[in-house]
Specification:
0% helix
């Protein structure tokens, strides 16, 4: 199951919400944690280093956001 992660890092950049596969690749994101989801044609590498996240929920990979 994919995880929906909301970034909660306190810094000068805007935070987003991400859909992350079990292998750690990002398949979609929601800009500024609101509005519509944007899916990537190819999953992107995703690093969590130096950032903080909270898990909002787990979703099936085929579930449309």
């Amino acid at each position: 199951m994919n995880k929906i992660l909301q970034e909660i890092t306190e810094w000068e950049y805007p935070n987003h919400t991400y859909e992350i596969r079990p292998d750690g690749k990002c398949v979609a994101y929601q800009k500024f944690s609101q509005g519509e989801w944007r899916r990537f044609k190819k999953p992107l590498n995703f690093t969590r280093s130096r950032r903080k996240f909270k898990t909002l929920k787990k979703v099936e990979p085929t579930e449309s956001l």
